[in-house]
Design a protein that fits this description.
Order of helices and strands: HEHEEEHEEEEHHHEEEEE
Structural class: alpha+beta
CATH superfamily of the largest domain: Bira Bifunctional Protein, Domain 2
CATH class of the largest domain: Alpha Beta
Radius of gyration: 18 Å
Distance between the termini: 50 Å
Number of strands: 13
Number of helices: 6
CATH topology of the largest domain: BirA Bifunctional Protein, domain 2
Length: 250
């Protein structure tokens, strides 16, 4: 079904704005935040022409095929790193409820089905000096994007491809927001961190991150990756691109 304000009003649990086409929902949400938007308000678009991920990567959300959602959250500054965690958990639980299998979170911000990316998460904070005004938790979710015959066929997938069924994006948007709010209420708990850590799919594997090669040992409470290289030296990596090195050992 086509996304419309009317359909979304029946499913979204929070104040929202709907855009048929937009550059970036995160940009719109951060602007709305500075104009007084309340916590948990949502910007959602059918098509996103200038979406972005970590490290400046850009992508286009095609119309009718995906979800592009940004929720405004206002946590205490110390819990800011956990917003990406709860976003990943929300997507995993939504996909699991639909019958998707072999779900995992590729550190730090991709949700995968069978090792293929189905969703990306980007949290962007807005500050006034040293005061945190809030953050936009942006989530891009492939619903029926067709990657067959493209260069992304081996690395990306969609929900409908995973379960071989047609889905209602308005219902998905509402369910996703419900899961975000569920974990947002538990942002300070050990349960959130433990649940997120349990979903990580590369711990114990050989990886490359920010030029360091080694075993992905664990993660810290603020979401940093702990990596042990061939010399036994440990690296704490807060941001970066994680690349699996299948078949390699120390």
């Amino acid at each position: 079904m086509t996304l419309t304000s009317g359909r979304l009003a029946k499913t979204l649990p929070t104040l929202f704005r709907y855009f048929q086409r937009i550059g970036s929902t995160n940009d719109a949400a951060r602007d709305w935040l500075m104009k007084g938007a309340p916590a948990n308000a949502v910007d959602i678009a059918d098509e996103q022409s200038a979406g972005r991920g970590r490290r400046g990567k850009s992508w286009h959300t095609p119309p009718g095929a995906a979800l592009a959602i940004s929720m405004i959250l206002k946590p205490q500054a110390r819990w800011l790193p956990r917003l990406t965690m709860l976003g990943g958990l929300a997507v995993c639980e939504l996909a699991e409820s639909l019958g998707c299998e072999d779900l995992g979170i590729k550190w730090p911000n991709d949700v995968q089905i069978g090792g293929k990316k189905v969703s990306g998460i980007l949290c962007e904070a807005t500050w006034a000096g040293d005061r945190l005004c809030g953050a936009a938790l942006g989530i891009g979710l492939n619903v029926r994007v067709d990657f067959q015959g493209t260069t992304l066929a081996a690395s990306a997938t969609s929900l409908e491809s995973a379960i071989d069924a047609r889905l209602d994006r308005s219902q998905l948007a509402g369910s996703l927001c419900e899961r975000i709010l569920h974990w947002q209420r538990r942002i300070a708990t050990d349960e959130l961190f433990a649940s997120w850590r349990a979903r990580l799919n590369m711990l114990g594997q050989m990886v490359s991150a920010n030029g360091a090669i080694g075993m992905a040992l664990d993660v810290t409470a603020d979401g940093a990756l702990l990596l042990s290289d061939e010399r036994g030296e440990r690296h704490t990596i807060h941001v970066g691109e994680l690349v699996p090195l299948a078949g390699e050992g120390l």
